[in-house]
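Reviewer 2 asked us to include a model.

Predict the structure of this chain.
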Amino acid sequence: MGWNTYYDQTAGRKPRQLLVKALDEYIPADFVETRHQAADIGCGSGIETAFLIDRGWDVLAIDKEAMAIRRLKASIKIQEHLQTQIAPFEAMTLPDKIDLAYAGYSLPFCHPDHFVTMWRNITTSIAKGGYFVGEFFGERDSWATNPEMTFNTAVETRLLFTEFEILFFHERDSRGQAVSGDKHWHVFSVIARKLGNQTE
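Predicted model (structure tokens):
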């Protein structure tokens, strides 16, 4: 199944619950109400990008698929708060300080050879007091035999956040549906805040 088919089949879905939960429960209202910079890493067709813009964020939407960026631009009526970048994980350029890095089910698609460098790029770019929201795939996921993807244990996932306070950590280890059909999901969902204050 190609990415364009995936975008067609998921068009119209609601923003992912982890991002909604982060903004509603973990990121303070006064933080959200002041316009800040977010990066949507692996933005796909841009449902979460549009949601963040509606919530008052400036968003840099990044995806390696040009079709994803074209679809995103076509869906955003007012684009003054949107920037886009077509790049794979290992070549993306992030601003010096972002207040929110969102990666919805995207980072596992980074090749293992590039994962450490990519993750360092993300964590370095997040400002002190900023947030990471996203998912990682575990070693029992149905797709864990794919050598082009990255999978982590629960311990490995937590160790990625030595510079952060983990605010929410949830493990899903169950059968379920993907757009491609039935699969076993082993997913770690994380909301974390980078240690320190924005004024530092």
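The chain has a mean pLDDT of 90. Residues 6 and 92 are 22 Å apart (CA to CA). We have added this to the supplementary material.
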